[in-house]
Amino acid sequence: MRKYFDQITRIAGNVVTVTATGVGYDELATITGPHRSSLAQVIRLEGDQVSLQVFAGTQGVSTEDRVHFLGRPMQVPFSDDLFGRVFDGSGRPRDGRPEVQAEAVDIGSPPVNPVKRLLPSKMVRTGVPMIDVFNSLVESQKLPIFSVAGEPYNDLLARVGLQADADVIILGGMGLRHDDYLRFRSTFEQGGVLGRSIMFIHTAADPVVECLLVPDLCLAVGEHFALQGKRVLVLLTDMTAFSDALKEIAIIMEQIPSNRGYPGDLYTQLARRYEKAVDFDGAGSMTVLACVVMPGDDVTHPVPDNTGYITEGQFYLRSGWIEPFGSLSRLKQQVNGKTRDDHRSIMDACIQLYALCRESREKRDMGFEMSEWDSRLLTYGGLFEEQIMNLEVNIPLEEALDRCWGILAECFEPAETGIRRAIIEKHWPKAL
């Protein structure tokens, strides 16, 4: 029995309110008029008043239109035919190719029961030394990149997608400029990973409602590939645009605003997406790396602030590189003891000496007299930034560790590094 309702009581922005019963949250509906049919989704239930987001906008929708509820949530086709394809925020092809004909799966399902999850224990190699050496990315981890507008966070995300040791790369773009979308696509195509990549792209010119669907589309597809035993890496950029879309819808719905106008359930909305990261027992894994733009470089802004409570660390992208102080992968200890026996020693020694270098730079800038030790610290800092921190550096973990040893040997004596003698004797570069 098909359910039709024609008592539309309110149209505001992209939201339509209709009097209806027997309807579920997140259920899909079509709004049909004399000359058009629009897809919508239930976003609020208040008695018999049902509010729906209209994906294509409410232009042309009238109170005389008829609402037909489909009895199911939003779905996305799932098959290997998704590889190499680009879709919009409603799951429609953006690349000019036909729609994928496959069994559809629901989006927005609950996170996996913790009992069914494995403890994260495998490293995701990215080829970026500041990640691999100092804050290793771990399979099934959820990790944000905190940045500000103008920083190359999309370039960093594209590099990670290009070089990461993963079977499936899923990119979710929210509020992207068209040139950013084209840069992602060309980077993956030229790097030879487009054949194992899937893109769901919402640009700034698309309806704001579609922005809210992008993370759910990515995570639904990624979860099903993970259940097939594949290692999936989901890249989301950026979650501030997603949160701003939530804010815009909440204003239209006349919800009571919370901090800086964001809805009171912002934490829950973000957690529903981040907590989908999982390492399945007996199957594959899904890792989530997301960009979060901080307006005004303010880490207390509601989006990065709530994100920090949900995720397992963060990267700070400042001045074109990953900031070593403040960046943290809380799961790195699960993997960096299994890579090479000198990994933790190099990680600790290099960061400690770089901290001393920054103190020496402050002394120099304030006009204090510089000692020979300060001069060596300054030399070390320059080499470390150029050969390790520079995001253009693209080398495997083992080569990055060897390069760190070379920088230490160029600037210091073995005893000055603070590294244990047994590790020094095994790995200190031999004189030619």
* Structural class by SSE content: alpha/beta
Q: According to CATH, what is the topology of the largest domain?
A: Rossmann fold
**Text of the CATH class of the largest domain:** Alpha Beta
Tally of separate helices? 11
Distance between the termini: 84 Å
Total strand segments:
21
Q: Output the radius of gyration.
A: 25 Å
Shape from CA axes? Answer: elongated
Helix content: 25-40%
Q: How many structural domains?
A: 3
Low-confidence stretches: none
Average pLDDT, all residues: 91
* Biggest pleated sheet: 10 strands, mixed
**Architecture of the largest domain, according to CATH?**
3-Layer(aba) Sandwich
The share of residues in extended strands comes to 15-25%
Note down, in words, how this protein is organized:
It is built from 11 helices and 21 strands. It is an alpha/beta fold and 432 residues long. It has 3 domains: 3-73, Thrombin, subunit H, CATH 2.40.10.170; 76-333, Rossmann fold (3-Layer(aba) Sandwich), CATH 3.40.50; 343-427, no CATH class. α2 (153-163) runs parallel beside α3 and α6 crosses α7. The protein starts with a strand and ends in a 5-residue tail after the last helix. The model has no long low-confidence stretch (mean pLDDT 91).
Brief write-up:
Helices cover 33% and strands 24% of the residues. The protein folds into three domains: 71 residues, Thrombin, subunit H (Beta Barrel); 258 residues, Rossmann fold (3-Layer(aba) Sandwich), CATH 3.40.50.12240; 85 residues, no CATH class.
